[in-house]
Amino acid sequence: MRVAGGLSDPTEEGVIKYVADHVAADYGVKIKITPVDDGNSLIKELNDSDSVDAAVLGYKPWIDGLNKTEGYHVAAVAPLFSQYWVFYSKKYKSLSELPNGASVAYRGDAPFYTGQILTSLEELGVIGLRANADPLTISTKDITSNPKHLKFVSVQSAARTLDDVDLAASQSTEFSLAGTPGNLKIAQVENKDLFAKQLAVRADRVDDPDIKKAIEAFKDPRVGEWATKNFGDLISAVDSSGA
After folding, report:
1. What are residue 117's DSSP bridge partners?
2. What is the per-residue pLDDT across 149-182, written as a single tens digit (0 to 9) for each?
3. Which of 99, 135, 212, 217 maximizes the CB count within 10 A of its CB?
């Protein structure tokens, strides 16, 4: 069973290797890691070829979106762990120190990234959002309260903007992979399970006996426990491995 993960993301590669070395045998399956550097290439390879049997991918909304726009047939079958949404600054030590008109760079290359950043800021008491806004489609147009008159800037890599803005927001792994010093983190919010990293397979293989064994192996409680023990500053466990 060939399971692919992001070569540049230690959480993906680490979880696959842990399952391969310590869990898979208990479910009667052998797992070999196949590193692929880019998530878009990974999901395309999973959909188009037989070179991989499963993959650790981004969130279910992202997978579902590509199924619609690209015609893929990929199923998210097991949430593994969630990354934190984090806020970094080189200029200020807390969100309360942000001045009037502060600039906020956020990862905005997909609507649900924007939604998670904005809902996190609402949870932290920085802004207010329209009631019952869909977390998959929230935009800055849904901001109803912005006491500090924050100026939001959509970017592809928030970590690269730290020298140019007052606050940068994205997933925890983005800043970690960029080598951003941890002491620059001034706030974080636990992600929703809807945006957990997922084990994904081709939809037409969900009922394949070996695929089923692999799914159960990745759902094993030891996987979440190991991941949070080793990457606890970057991720949190999902509420239920069967969610």
Report:
1. none
2. 999 999 989 999 999 999 999 989 889 989 999 9
3. 217
Task: Convert 183-194 to b/e letters by CB count within 10 Å (16 or more is b).
Answer: ebbbbbbebbbb
- Is it the case that residue 143 has pLDDT exceeding 90? yes
Residue 35: predicted pLDDT? 79
Question: Could you give the C-alpha distances from 51 to 84, 226, 229, 242, in angstroms and in order?
Answer: 31, 28, 31, 27
Beta strands, E only, 122-222: 128-129, 143-145, 151-155, 167-171, 185-189, 197-202
- Nearest-angstrom CA–CA distance, 58 and 198: 6
Please tell me the distance from the alpha carbon of residue 196 to that of residue 178, in angstroms, as a whole number: 21
Concatenating the DSSP letter of every residue in 188-200 gives: EEPPPGGG-EEEE
* Structure tokens given for 69: 């726009």
What Rg do the C-alpha atoms of the chain give, in angstroms? 19
Q: At what angle do helices 209-219 and 221-231 cross, to 10 degrees?
A: 50
Q: Which two tokens stand for residue 56?
A: 């650790």
pTM of the model: 0.83
| Under 8 Å between Cβ of 95 and 187 | yes
**Contacts of 80 by beta carbon, 8 Å cutoff, 6+ apart:** 15, 56, 196, 197, 198, 199, 218, 223, 224, 227, 238
Residue 110 has pLDDT above 60, yes or no: yes
